[in-house]
Every structure is written in C-alpha cells, then in structure tokens.
Design brief:
Strand order of the largest sheet: 1-2
Number of strands: 2
Oligomer: single chain
Helix content: 55-70%
Strand content: 5-15%
Number of helices: 6
C-alpha cells in the first residue's frame, strides 16, 4: 500500500467520515479557508491513481468513495513505524508511546483495560 501525502490524508479523513461524497460535500467538510475545487480535484485524481479512492458517475457528477478502510491504512503505518523505529518490538513502541505522550492516569487505565482484554482473548 502506498502512502498518502498530508493533504491527501486530510482529504481521505473527510471521505472516511462521509463514506461517499460529491465534490461539494468534500469542499463543505473543509474548515475555512477552503481549498480550491481544482486543488481537491487534483488530490482526488492522485488518490484514484494510487487506488485509495474510486467514483461512480451520475451524469456530469462523480460520487467518490474510499477503497481503503481507515483501520487498514493506519494499522499498516503503525506496523511500519514499529518495524522501522523500534526494531520490530511492539513493547519498545508501547514503552515509548506511554512515556512520551503525556497520557493522563485515566488514559493509561483505559490502555491497561484494552491490553488486559487482549491478553484474555489470546489465552482462549
């Protein structure tokens, strides 16, 4: 899977949220100052070429939709990050993540619940 640029990723976020959208819907999803229609059209073309987005035509209008699930895209990136920066060690990544991101006690407790739940699933 290829990577998206920051601006493509931002557009993809809107598309994941909307699930399918016409150009006007995508432009509305952006905060002010909104990008030019031509900018969004160029991004969409690149994302179609990279096979992240496809569209259905209705007369002169195109309804765009994502071809890649958000979870698939980000899990690939997190796994790449662990592989490239943490010697393929998830525990090194977890240690870095919990120490360097200023998580609150509540967030750490939530994270512990998730981990404990996953441990129970693996035991079965």
């Amino acid at each position: 899977m290829q990577q998206l640029t920051n601006s493509e990723e931002q557009l993809m976020e809107h598309l994941w949220q909307l699930e399918k959208a016409f150009m006007k819907d995508l432009l509305e999803a952006y905060p002010e100052p909104k990008p030019a229609t031509t900018t969004v059209a160029t991004l969409l073309k690149r994302m179609i070429d990279k096979q992240f987005v496809a569209y259905r035509e209705y007369g002169n209008s195109r309804e765009y939709y994502p071809l890649v699930k958000k979870t698939d895209y980000f899990s690939k990136h997190v796994n790449g990050l662990i592989s490239n920066f943490f010697n393929n060690s998830a525990s090194q990544f977890a240690s870095f993540f919990t120490k360097e991101t200023n998580l609150s006690q509540t967030e750490l407790e939530e994270l512990k619940k998730i981990i404990d739940s996953e441990i129970l699933k693996k035991k079965k």
